[in-house]
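Hallway conversation turned thread

IA: we were arguing at lunch whether anyone had actually written out Non-specific serine/threonine protein kinase end to end. Turns out nobody had. So, for the record, here is the sequence (314 residues) and right after it the structure tokens. Reply here if something looks off.
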Amino acid sequence: MRVRSIFLALFSLSLLLSIAFSSFQLLPDSGISSSDLDAILQDYAFKAFCNPKTGVPYDAKLPKNLSGISVSAMRLKSSSLRKRGVQSYKEFQIPIGVVEQPSVERLVLVYHNLGNWSEVFYPLPGYSYLASVLGLLAYNGANLSASDLPELDIRASDKPILIKFSNVKSAPSGSVPKCVYFDLHGSVQFDILSPENACSTLQQGHFSIVVESNAPAPAPAPAPEPVAVVENGGNNKYKVWIIVGIVAGGLLLVIILSLIAGRVIRIKKDMKIQQLEQVSESYENLKITSIGSTKAPLAIGTRTKPILENNYVP
Ligand SMILES: *[C@@H]1O[C@H](CO)[C@@H](O)[C@H](O)[C@H]1NC(C)=O
Ligand SMILES: *[C@@H]1O[C@H](CO)[C@@H](O)[C@H](O)[C@H]1NC(C)=O
Ligand SMILES: *[C@@H]1O[C@H](CO)[C@@H](O)[C@H](O)[C@H]1NC(C)=O
């Protein structure tokens, strides 16, 4: 009885643990993180350049497995960016006074429109997107064949950079659309949406418009999305290995815990046997006397001495 309930407890514990661990799956599911995507898109954006003119956007060609995303690149002298800004670069309006850190002579502004991949790379539980996630990232423009470049840090020092979204879905009645901003380190900020569907920023990153979704967002709901998106075998393999790891870890835990439980049960049994032995030993201390043909333990001392009735004189 007790053994069975211990195993039941162990089983449910391991089940709980594996559920807890499986939430890790959500993070690396598309196989590439949003910062990996930034690096991939930087590479394709730079390849779009062929004797580039400064201040002109060049659209990049992306592979089929990224279709739905659009990327452009614009090369600028940093002095020109600072003094003149860029009146319009797709949805972005860059004012004067934007400076980069560390300082370079030429920089490349890479534009992202993640289209139907927005939720995949920037999942936001509890919210739904009314517009595509747009990105603006700055890189050193000295070597146009370079890849894996780190982003430069750009900051608007005078007026903020404006993002005027087009193709914005109308918000459900009663809900208030908000600007959302993802910085390059994965933190998220919300801001009010100005009229004409414009958001503003002092820094680079990714931007969109969201509304809080009324439907309660259960934790497992976003899980199938990235799965459906995965097309290359490598990512699936990754997922399978995570599941295998979880199952193996769970089994190992059950085995270890049941070994410990077995040990505890055996120690308890041993203790019981010892107790029984002690009891029987104490019986052995009693003198065995033969009464007729049967042997019986005989206590030497008696607690109450028998008193003869006729000692009493009424
Ligand atoms: C897309 O396909 C190319 C091969 O055409 C592959 O090298 C690359 O890893 C794939 N990228 C993604 C993001 O799946
Ligand atoms: C986005 O749409 C393109 C077709 O325009 C499709 O090939 C791609 O798989 C879609 N991506 C996602 C994440 O649904
Ligand atoms: C530019 O980068 C490429 C790739 O990293 C490298 O092979 C090349 O030498 C670099 N060119 C210059 C001028 O630094």
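OS: looked through it. The pocket of 2-acetamido-2-deoxy-beta-D-glucopyranose (ligand 1) is lined by residues 32, 63, 65-66, 232 (CB under 6 Å).
IA: good, adding that to the notes. Residues 15-28, 217-237 have pLDDT under 50 and may be disordered.
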